[in-house]
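Dear support,

Our group has been running a series of protein-ligand predictions, and this particular one with adenosine-5'-diphosphate is the one our PI (initials K.S.) wants archived with full inputs and outputs. We had some confusion internally about which version of the output was final, so please treat the block below as the authoritative record. The input we submitted was:
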Amino acid sequence: MAKKQFKAESKRMLDMMINSIYTHKEIFLREIISNASDAIDKLCYLSLTDENVGMERGDFRIRIAVDKDERRITVSDNGIGMTKEELEKNLGVIAHSGSLKFKDDLGEDAQEDAAIDIIGQFGVGFYSAFMVSDKVTVISRAYGSEQAYQWESSGADGYTITEAEKETVGTDVIMHVKPDDSAGEKYSTYLETWKIMMLVRKYSDYIRWPIVMDVEKNDWVETGEKDENGEPKMQMVNTVEEQTVNSMIPIWQRSRQEATDEECIAFYKEKYHDNDDPLAVIRVNAEGLISYRALLFIPSKTPENFYTRESEPGLELYSSGVMIMDKCADLLPDCYAFARGVVDSPDLSLNISREMLQHDRQLKLIASNLSKKMKAELTRLLKNDREKYETFYRSFGMVLRAGVISEYGDKLDEIKDLLLYNVDETKLVTLREYVDAMPVEQEKIYYACGDNIRRLLSLPQAEQLHARGYEILCMTSQLDEYFVDTMKSYDEKPFCNIAAEDLGLESEEEKKETEQKEAEAKELLDFVKETLGEAVSSVKLSHKLVSGAVCLSTEGGVTLEMERYFRSMPGAPDHIKAIRVLEFNGGHHAFQEMREAFDAGDREKAAKLAKILHAQALLIAGEPLDDPAAYSELVCELI
Ligand code: ADP
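Confirmed final output from the archive:
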């Protein structure tokens, strides 16, 4: 029969699997077993509500059979099975093709590296069988179907699907093991029972279903005859016995002594297809009002699809080892949505529905405890392992902050000490650290909002603060600004937006002086306001500037950042505008020049200079110019 072709990317992947120099070829068994286990999970889950399944929890198992002479390893499960269409869909195209970014122009080595990377990141599941096999046969009968089908492939040249015989529901994956090759790869070891047992213990020990295989045993047995001393005669017999080779105890059910952190990390990497160690492993074993165990992880980086719809947050929820929900979002508040892991409680009912869970008191209790644990762990990282914490914050700071919003600010108090802000392009500080480092006379917490840290720190308003040794918190997300608005102060120190508010640095005398100067320059300032029209609400002399000539500040509750935010939101009301104030440095030569022109009656020149200075204030504040061409012309005229 005609062979069907793999989808292009799958073919490429397959080629790489077959020719792989990947050193951990042995993971193929783990991948095949974990598919089998998933298939059993699915049927077991179905059996909770569907009596026709006719299986008890104790009936499920995964069986491994090794045939040395035929060079075959067979992994069989009595799980949900696959229909013909599913065989086609699941095995004919590589599962994670969306994540594969192969480039034709990559050299062979680079492609190999890419493959290794993918194996590490996603596991390649079923395809890894081809690392050790030159042919793979899958015989499967889906639950609810009388007909079984066989899928077979010898690699990249395609696959066939034919009808097959199979008595029971489930799947057999038959791997035809490659001959040992001249490069020294000894595939034959995978045909040794001890090797398979070792691999099961190493990678699949916690699988919740029994993994059984026939194990040969040598036993001394009585022959029935007696020796010359009248003792029963013994002889060695070789028996074959079916043994369960995994311990089946999920890792989260084990104590610290029974499962080391390393083992938990290995479990995490395998389960969540992450190449990197998690930043933290959190184990909870709670007894009391409600008993449960939890094993949570803080990943070190955002998974590729984290911000997409397909990545639903949530922890796996088990009841005494049976999974009842794979993404239970109610177990953690949104600000900790980056955490992954499992929660297992014998106190939860098995066939509880999603809707019921939301109102479940016990679940709420677990959630509130887990939330405390998360906070404690993050606080610990922040204190004891700053580097790790900063890695965490770079990856998940957004989630932490966004979670607060979705909880209507409820969680702000909880996480405010976990927030980090840049005070220069590399240094991050907490609010606590900022306040502790404030010089004694500093009264406010200064901050600036915008996404470009360098621009924020070079705002003309910042110069004076830096000169006094005051630091400025760079709030790079709109959420930060929202938090500051909500908090108003931290440790009794009020927040001060340097682009909007009075910095509060002037003495009474200095204030008087500025007022006096302003009075003197009133005519000119009025003229500038008139020239600029609606573009600014008022014009004044500034006491915030040191060497800069102008700056733009705002009055009232709406800042430039907020205005920008509303501008970027489709459908947002367009009347939300900042009240803009143009501030001049009275001592700056550019201002003097404008004043001289004005005093000399050259209003045209004074107006041009006013427009240029206004444009510069806009640029510095990160605002677009209404008419850049006109600005450019004005500047050229002066050059
Ligand atoms: P993944 O397991 O990461 O989704 P795989 O390539 O390992 O990717 O498997 C692809 C799909 O094939 C699985 O998601 C599952 O639907 C199906 N599958 C694989 N093995 C089995 C099996 N033993 N029983 C039922 N379905 C299976």
